Amino acid sequence: MKLNGSVRFLTFIAIILLLLIIVQTQTHAQEQLDKKITISLNNEVLKTALDKISNTSGIKFTYNEQIAVSKIKISVNANDKPISTILSTAFAGHPLQFSALGKEIFIRFNSPKEKKQEAGPAANPEKSQEKHTLSGTIKSASTGETLIAATIRALDTKYATQSNEYGFYSLTLPQGKYTITVNAIGSKSYITTINLQKNTSLNVAIEDDLNELETVTITTNAAKRNIDNPQMGMERLSIKETKNVPVLLGERDVIKTLQLLPGVKTSGEGSGGFFVRGGSADQNIILLDEAPVYNASHLLGFFSTFNSDAIKNVTLYKSGMPAQYGGGLSSVLDVKMNDGNNQKYGVSGGVGLIAARINVEGPIQKEKSSFLISARRTYADMFLKLSSDSASRDAKLYFYDVNLKANYILGDKDRLFVSGYFGKDVLGSDNLIGINWGNAATTLRWNHVFNNKLFSNTSLIFSNYNYKIQSTNDESSLTLFSQIRDWNFKEDLQWYANEKNTLSFGLNSIYHTIKPGEVQATGNSGLISQNLQNRYSLENAIYASNTWKASNALSFTYGLRLSAFNILGKGDYYTLDDAGNVTATTSYKKGELVKTYVNLEPRIAAALQLNESTAIKASYVRNAQNLHLISNSNASSPTDRWVASTNIIKPELSDQVSLGYYKNLGNDNYELTVETYYKTLQNQIDYRNGADIYTNKPIETQLLYGKGRAYGAEFLLKKKNGKLTGWIAYTISKSERQIDGINDNNWYNARQDRTHDVSVVSMYQLNKKWSLSANWVFATGNAVTFPIGKYKLLGHSYFNFSDRNADRMPSYHRLDLGATKLLKQTKKFSSELNFSLYNAYGRENAYRITFRDKETDPNRTETIRTTLFRFVPSISYNFKF
Amino acid sequence: MKIILRFILLLIISIQWSCEKAIDLKLKNNVLKYVIEGTITNEAGSCKIYISETKDFGDDNQFNGISGAIVKIENKGNTIVLTETEKGIYESAAVIGIPGETYNLTVNIKDLVFKASSTMPQLVPFLDFTLKPTDFDTKEVKPMIKFKDPGETRNFYWFQQYVNDKLQKKYRVINDDFFTGQEVNDFLEFSNETDNKALNFKRGDKLTAEMHCVDAGVYTYLFSLFNANGSDTGAAPSNPVSNISGDVLGFFSAHTVQRKTVTIP
Asked: Whole-model pTM above 0.95?
């Protein structure tokens, strides 16, 4: 088949690219020290000398204040010699040393005390060392935004830690002098020396890495990947990475970028839902600044609800979920928004082909408080007005979302955050039929630092998700309304007990009110207004977890989450027979307890560092989920029904074991990750054959329950530095279900089962003005049910279907190209133009395959493939004040 | 409600740059299965049982009747054996449907036995079938049906649609969950979803609605047949829930018949 030929060709290209990347690395390791220059320095003050070497070679130096003001003078004469030789000669006789650090050269004073500590301080016999704690907040120097997961390291020792979600860190060290480095993605390295004699507070403001010296802009990621902690199954995306990835219609989208990582599968062309490791779309807990988001996409999935302008950090846990998270079997997607520049005002935004966005932020009180407002709206409905079809002309198709945030620093130890998110989608057609759905969430958070080791975050959250379908005509109108409303209280504490133990513990309590449906009818349609009963529940959890550094090479995380789901009245709960008929009804009063489900969820992980750059990790997690999305669809459409566990619908459970191998290659320019997993799922839900989603009978009468399993292996090779960056991801996996009453009680492939999944993502900085990007994705088809025969009934052809999901859609592949041109860049204003082409070679990927009688010859049947997008160009303009 | 959703989703899809193409897909070979379509109505001479077999996807769509089956209908102790009038079609003028009566069907084909049972509901009058001038264009016509649902029983309705006396594939099934005891004013959708302009609606076209009161088992079958090909949002297709026992496709229904016609002005 022609298909195989082109796929093979493209795979070949991908492999060539991969080889080129590796080859390029080999020849450029330790590049900066080997660079040859000709230079002559005669008794130059150290800093001036270093600047001259920089200017000649293009290599940058990092050093602290003491070096910068040092009076040391150096001399050297070199003719086409490598920098390493030049520095060795120049520093001879001076207490100076140099070493490579990322892409730069690090200059520091020799210190007689510094030596590589091979054993932990406990094994150091001659010093009974007193320990002290260094703690503080890491933030960006230009905006004041706290930095998440910045690495704070005591150089030449094994002591290191990471800043938490609010930028707070705490590092306990034996007393003494240390060189402390702080690294974060997208920021310059920060270096300082300290003499730790007592508990010290060190707040660090790091400069953004703008790299103006070079004629070429290089994305430096001086942060070497930490592989010594037991966290596995985690992907962290910075907004810079999503910036350049080309997507459909040019709207930067965090979820679409996540779908390019291994283990995360898209749920359909353009659709915003995603499946993680064989799970379904509702098994992902999505949090936006701690608030749960039930429908993370707009317009049936073509756009995500996250406005990339305002996002600080996105973390996805595919396994090894820390004990503070619960409620979703497959993954946790934790999205943290920016807090707002507390130094100066800024406006940024952009106009794309179908949506416009704006972001306004600034200080309320300089350095003490700030605000952020970001908004987005589509104007796709304007294009519809140009349509020739009258139905399209009157159609309404738009969404908007608004993020509002304010935060106040109340002294050294406290910080208060207030945030709100509001989003709405409207789909309609000339006032006759409309669907609108929306998410609203407001959060109040309070960070409190009890002491240099104990950090607390308290959150109070209100969230509301609802949808409304309305149909109006001359005679009558019909409205369907459904809603989930949550009140949520969370308390999370992190105790950096000592240099070996970091504990986290806390509690989480959510009160859910689910309104499954309200039908209101006016006019003479005959429809009777109905209210399906509200469902109330209280979901509580407490957790405790410790990450223990057993030795320099071995770490463990052991934790336990205890969750209790209480189903409360007021309401009627049913008993059913095997056929799904109601045999008894029990009525409960308001607040009366119907049933409690208690689940113990252990979260265990271990990491063993084989050497400086290699580690293996293993983890086991159990997750319980009490909110279920009952739907027959693959995309998260607004008409899916969210249902809480009841006396009949049990909590879904999953147990996942996972094993991983991690290696930093090529002088930390590459990251290789290999992870395998096996997951068992219990109490999985599906509809009976012939079920009616819109019935006013209890939903349990339409459902069947069973189990599932998913397993696979994921490979990721990431290149972080240089002109060409990006990654190659490959996943091989299987996901199956077995539910009595479906497929003759046999195991069948889950719809999201897709055997092979490949993504190649590349970003190339061509020159100062232009950057290019290209993605290529390939996946074997989803599992589907195709007919095995046909028959005539009621005068027309119908199809005979056999085993569920035993067939496959055709393979899917697509290339997207993007280019960004920097138009203007000054200190005050910058703007860029972004071009993208989705499905660059116009592959006719099957969105849907249906079967019907031939229109031209009713005596035959035909197979129809629907393709959605081919050659979709887009252009967008982004600016920043 | 389903109609609303289908409409909206079709709208969304049609707005994008979507295209449809007939392709050649290698499907698995046909596994032979019998298909039984049986009806008894309250009109004389209407008792007809069609028996056929499934065909390969690539075959033509001609009805391939199965001869030599023994088809019996039993009611109140009386069993009538139907005679094969054409290949695969079994009839008997002696069977006349009466509302309230239960009819049991037995089909013997080779050594397989299939049984079904259906109770003809009481007749609910089909009050009106009207078309407003604003409710149609060349591609779609939406005449209104009117009937009053009796509140004391569970009722299920099946509307078959004819254009110029040609039976359409699209039909409508309604249950009274949301309408108990009310007078119902609802729309039937006649539409030309093909590119064939000859099938567009024009002045003088006759639209006929045939209203059947059916029992619960038949309603479940027709409801699941409607969704059998899966939904636009990706629901897995599966065979409808048949009210005939045994590994067989199709259904058996005892239902009332009432017809009304409108002409496009």
From this structure: no
